[in-house]
Each structure stands twice: as C-alpha cells, then as structure tokens.
Design brief:
Blueprint: H1 2-10, H2 31-43, H3 48-69, H4 74-98, H5 105-119, H6 124-152, H7 157-169, H8 173-179, H9 184-204, H10 207-221, H11 231-257, H12 271-296, H13 301-312, H14 314-329, H15 342-365, H16 371-381
Helix pairs in contact: 1-14, 1-15, 2-11, 3-4, 3-10, 3-12, 4-5, 4-9, 4-16, 5-9, 5-10, 6-10, 6-12, 10-12, 11-12, 13-15, 14-15
Pfam family, one: DUF418
Keywords: Membrane, Transmembrane, Transmembrane helix
Domain DUF418: 218-382
Length: 388
C-alpha cells in the first residue's frame, strides 16, 4: 500500500511540465510515460487515499477495542482518540509546511475528529444510513458535474474559446506553484496555504468520510483480522471494488491519453464519477491485501516480514517518502523534477519503497518502532498512558 501511495504522490513533485487540469502527470512525455500515467490514473490515483481512509477508520475501531479489552475506561479512550486526531492534524500541517502540499494526515485527523465525535459510538444501522447518505451525495455531485459540463458545451463559441485559452494558460501551474518555486520560504508558504484550504475541503468532498464510516463497519465485523472467516465477502469486495474503481477512472484516463477527445474546458466532466468509484476501488484494494495476507499465512518469509514491517511503521515511511521526494525533485532542492517524466518519477517511487523495505528489516532486527509512531503514541496516550 505504501508503494501505491508513493506512485500516487511522486508526480506532484515534478515541475516545468504541462499537466492539464485533471492530474499532476506531465502531458509532454513519451509513449512509455503516457502508458504508465494512464495506468496510474485507472488503478492508483484517487483510489489510494480512500483506501487509507478506510484503513484509518478500521484502525479507530481496533484502537478503541484493544484499549477497552485492557480495562481502559470509555472516557479515557475517547480522550486518546481526540488527542490522536488533533496531533495528526498538527503532523499534517508540519508535513505540508516543510515538504509536501498534498499531505493527507491533516484530512484524516480532521475527519476522525469530526466524524468520531458525531458517529463513532452509533449503531451499525445508523452507520449504514450515514454511508448511504454520503454515497448518495457523492453520486449527486457526479451527476451535477456531468450536467454542468454538458451545459457548458452550449455556450457561445467566443465564450468557449476564452475559457479554453484561460485554462491553457494555467496548464501545469498547479505543480509549478509548489514544486517549481526555487525560494524555499515562498514554497513553504504556498504549501501551508494550500493545506489550510484543501484539508477542510477534503472533508467536505465526502470521499474520506464515506471510506472512514465503511471502515468502522468492516472493523466491527472483523473482516481483516479474520480473513479466513470472511473469504467470500473479501473476494467479492476485492473483485467488484477494483473493477468499479477502474471503470470509473477510465474516462479521465482516456482523456489524459488523448483517446477520448473531450474539450479541455470540460476535461473535469467525469471527476465526480471518478471520486465516488475511487472509494470502491480503495476498499477493493484493502480487501485484496486481506486475501493476500490469508494466502501468505503465518510464515511470510523475509520479504513478507519486511512488507509487514513497513505496515507497522506506515506513518514513518509515509513521511520518509516526502523527505526523499521533495529535496530531490523540487526546484528549491536538487531540481530533478524538471528533467524527468513519469517513468523516472515512478522509478524513484519504487526505489524509495525498496529503501523502506531495507529500513524495516533493520528496525525489526532491533525491535524498534518507527520514530513517528513512537511520538504519536506518546502524544496520544498523555495522562491516560497505562505505563504511568
């Protein structure tokens, strides 16, 4: 999963390339770049963050359940969850300010804080209703986006030409504003400002809230802890989720590849469909990895143990990706992002994940947690730490 998120994030560190308005992938690459970017749009982009949101919600239930099993009072568990989410917001802001404008830790923390305070202790029936409401609103947004795009085609030719020219002038400016800024202080201010806007906006877009609530429901059934008991359910979720996610992303991918000749001014017409099906795709991946864990069993081997070691330190290794990507690729660092395309960027993403494997093996040998996990745990427990 950390490999997929590395692939999803690395293109945001490129700069000096035209990107269009529907993704961060450069549009000036060769055939291999185009194929890789198209595959990423179908199977990775917009699917990985909902996947982590689903797992984040799943983890909230695991956290509360494990503390309750140790005799921790409900009030203490509630305080720990609140502290955990507040500190995730802080982690996210620092991450964005220092390195990466696309941080999602803050969005997870804010969603956990708001949704957790309102719905976390509700019944399964209530959560199912909430999830259907969120899904319905996302579907409504998809329909409205498509209808608005169709109406824009009815505008006079002069107006459409002006809109197209304005959008062409902004092509690539989104990544350039953050990764193409050679002054680190100005880049940090831009990243911080973007984070302050995008973090609550992500919550309002409802993809994260929907995935988190579905994660709660899945955790209450123990889908991932006991995959052998839910093999058929996980298989259905994996097959249909990934299939729906891929089909929903296909129009945007075809637009990017130039196969679907959609006018540039309405290139976002299928963005709503992409968003709502992205939740299905993300949860499908989580189910697939649950089945993979069942297949591997209790003797995973060296590589399997290393991959599991990354998972136990997912926060640290997520941040490590930015620690490598940002200085290496952005203009305020070594500036490599101006000189490579999608293929080179994905190769760097894979290399960072392999580095994470090596570090996970070393940390496992030393029986050490990840540094970010240690810090977050101390901040989360506070006065409620059972070791006190």
């Amino acid at each position: 999963m950390l490999l997929l998120i590395a692939i999803a994030n690395v293109s945001w560190h490129l700069w000096g390339h035209p990107t269009g308005l529907s993704s961060a992938h450069p549009t000036d690459g060769g055939p291999v770049d185009t194929v890789l970017a198209t595959l990423s749009l179908i199977f990775v982009d917009g699917r990985i963050y909902p996947m982590f949101a689903f797992l984040f919600g799943y983890g909230m239930v695991q956290f509360a359940r494990s503390r309750a099993g140790r005799g921790t009072p409900d009030q203490s568990i509630g305080r720990m969850l609140v502290r955990r989410h507040i500190w995730l917001i802080v982690f996210g802001f620092v991450h964005a300010l220092l390195l990466f404008n696309g941080d999602v830790l803050g969005a997870y923390g804010l969603a956990g804080l708001v949704l957790g305070g309102i719905f976390f202790r509700r019944t399964d029936r209530t959560l199912k209703i909430v999830s259907w409401v969120f899904a319905g609103l996302l579907a409504l947004f998809a329909l409205l986006a498509g209808a608005m795009a169709a109406l824009m085609l009815l505008l006079p030719s002069e107006v459409k030409d002006e809109i197209t020219a304005s959008m062409a002038a902004q092509s690539g400016s989104l990544t350039d504003a953050f990764s193409g800024q050679s002054n680190y202080v100005l880049a940090a201010l831009a990243r911080g400002g973007m984070w302050l806007v995008s973090t609550p906006a992500t919550l309002l877009m409802l993809t994260f809230p929907l995935a988190i609530v579905l994660g709660w429901l899945a955790a209450r059934r123990g889908l991932l802890e006991a995959p052998a008991d839910h093999r058929r359910t996980l298989a259905r979720i994996a097959v249909w989720g990934i299939l729906i996610g891929a089909v929903g992303a296909l129009p945007d991918a075809l637009v990017f590849a130039g196969v679907l000749p959609l006018p540039e001014m309405i290139a976002w017409a299928f963005s709503g469909v992409n968003a709502v099906t992205g939740v299905a795709g993300g949860i499908g991946y989580a189910a697939l990895f649950g089945l993979l864990a069942l297949r591997i069993g209790s003797a995973p081997g060296v590589i399997g143990r290393a991959v599991a070691g990354i998972g136990r330190r997912s926060l640290s290794f997520y941040l490590l990706q930015s620690v490598v990507f940002a200085p290496l690729l952005t203009a305020w660092g070594f500036g490599l992002g101006q000189h490579i395309g999608t293929t080179g960027a994905f190769a760097i993403a894979v290399a960072v994940w392999i580095l994470s494997l090596v570090l996970a093996i070393v940390l496992d040998a030393q029986n050490r947690r990840g540094p970010a996990e240690v810090l977050l745990r101390r901040l989360t427990y506070g006065r409620d730490d059972p070791a006190r």
